[in-house]
């Protein structure tokens, strides 16, 4: 009878037979895999070898660390934790044990906690009153401004982005009519003083002077003057 499988270690074939015995006769499985019918039964009664015993001990430690981490530890972090505790183990072995026992690390959601500005710091007024639509160039004006006063149609806001270097803060100036970014600046700490966003190329394309409008925000506590954005 032709062989359907590449021959592997007998213990591997015995495990396959033990897992598939509920789906067919053991004698037929043994014949297909090229082992004696008595082999699987002798293999099950054989005491565990040294590697199997150490696998069980290591598995208990890995399961405990996985539970403590609330399912966030993958095999690299698990190996570092065990090695720091004085247990020399290999990453492939830990990865195999985690895979065989259904332990898959879940990605911890990154969340940036924002802060409210101290009462002593002023909050920039909402000049646009949350109205960010403009029907044409130079038509967006602050609430209560004189209709004849020349005011630009740009908005500015601050956000934060997670990168490999950590949290980076980003200030962006957007043309409200064209719906495109016309200037930006980034910095690493919310309390530091950012440079002025580079929007000179956009300002030169208009014939009317303008000042970017901002929404009232308490996302960061900073002593930076509002005119810098």
UniProtKB/TrEMBL annotation:
Residues 189-229 are annotated as: Disordered. Residues 58-111 form the HTH-like domain. Residues 212-229 have a biased composition (Low complexity). SUPFAM superfamilies: Ribonuclease H-like. This is Putative transposase.
């Amino acid at each position: 009878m032709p062989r359907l499988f590449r021959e592997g270690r007998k213990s591997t074939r015995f495990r396959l037979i033990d897992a598939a015995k509920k789906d067919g006769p053991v004698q037929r499985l043994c014949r297909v895999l090229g082992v004696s019918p008595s082999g699987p039964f002798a293999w099950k009664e054989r005491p565990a070898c040294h590697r199997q015993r150490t696998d069980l001990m290591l598995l208990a430690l890995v399961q405990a660390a996985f539970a403590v981490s609330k399912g966030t530890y993958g095999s690299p972090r698990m190996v570092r934790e065990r090695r720091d505790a004085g247990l020399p183990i290999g990453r492939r072995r830990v990865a195999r044990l985690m895979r065989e026992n259904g332990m898959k690390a879940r990605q911890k959601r990154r969340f940036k906690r924002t802060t409210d500005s101290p009462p002593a710091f002023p909050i920039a007024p909402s000049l646009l009153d949350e109205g960010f639509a403009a029907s044409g160039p130079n038509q967006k004006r602050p609430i209560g401004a004189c209709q004849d006063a020349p005011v630009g149609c740009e908005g500015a806001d601050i956000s934060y982005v997670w990168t490999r270097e950590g949290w980076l803060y980003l200030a962006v100036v957007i043309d409200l009519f064209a719906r495109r970014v016309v200037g930006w600046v980034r910095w690493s700490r919310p309390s530091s003083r950012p440079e002025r966003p580079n929007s000179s190329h956009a300002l030169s394309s208009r014939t009317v002077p303008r000042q970017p409008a901002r929404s009232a925000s308490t996302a960061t506590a900073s002593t930076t003057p509002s005119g810098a954005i």
